[in-house]
Amino acid sequence: MKKLVLATLVCSLSSTYAVASENTTHYNKYQGFYVGVGVGATDFHDSRSINVYNNDSFGYSTESNDASYKAIAGYQFNRIVSLEAQYTKYGDIKHNIDVLGKVKLNFAKTEHESFTIAANLGYTFDNGIRPFATVGYGQISLKDPMIKDDGDLIRLGAGLEYQIKQIPGLGIRAAYEADFYTLEEGNKDFEQSIGSWYIGTTYKF
């Protein structure tokens, strides 16, 4: 009888420990600090227009062939909510005057970098997939031969993340995020945005 009671007690304690361990693993899977990096293409939009000598043969355009780079740090509270900080160094933006729609004359180059704090809102499914959106606030710094300015920005973005089951803590993501800000130039304000399509990796502790 004593052996039966002892065996029952051992089985009960083992089951309790297994459930507790499972719950702890399940809990930690969706909570913790994480860091990461990302790299992607730069996307720029400018509300300015330049009319050279009032001649329709000249136009204005921008382009960027350089990559953007991200450093990421955050904390995931549960399946849904994370708080995330990012530093982004965007690729240089070239400003061109287009002649007759054929020849591009580069007359300036602008550098952008930003620091943001954003809410990362989504849902982590049991299979590790997590669609998400980001919304936040931050500071942007830009400079070119004629302008050097710092200002506020609004960060918006969306993406998809996957937590790799075979390597606990390791995740990969693909996303688009953009910073919206106002450039003050002379007596005029111009609405601009710069963003990036990027692929990144994160590791949760």
Structural overview:
By secondary structure, the chain is mostly beta strands. It has two domains: about 1-30; about 30-205, Porin (Beta Barrel), CATH 2.40.160.20. Helix content is about 15%, strand content about 65%. It is built from one helix and ten strands. It has an eight-stranded antiparallel barrel. Strand 3 (about 65-75) and strand 4 form a beta hairpin. The longest helix has 28 residues, at about 1-30. The model is unreliable at about 1-25 (pLDDT under 50).
Which helices and strands appear, and what pairs or packs with what?
Blueprint: H1 2-29, E1 32-46, E2 58-63, E3 67-76, E4 81-89, E5 93-99, E6 103-122, E7 129-143, E8 148-163, E9 170-185, E10 188-204
Antiparallel strand pairs: 1-3, 1-10, 2-5, 3-4, 4-6, 5-6, 6-7, 7-8, 8-9, 9-10
Distance between the termini: 47 Å
Strand order of the largest sheet: 1-3-4-6-7-8-9-10
- CATH architecture descriptor name of the largest domain: Beta Barrel
Tell me the number of strands. Answer: 10
What is the CATH C level class of the largest domain, in words? Mainly Beta
Which term fits the overall shape?
elongated
- Content of β-strand: over 45%
Structural class: mainly beta
- Uncertain segments are 1-27
Q: Write the H/E string, N to C.
A: HEEEEEEEEEE
Rg over CA atoms, rounded to whole Å, is 25 Å
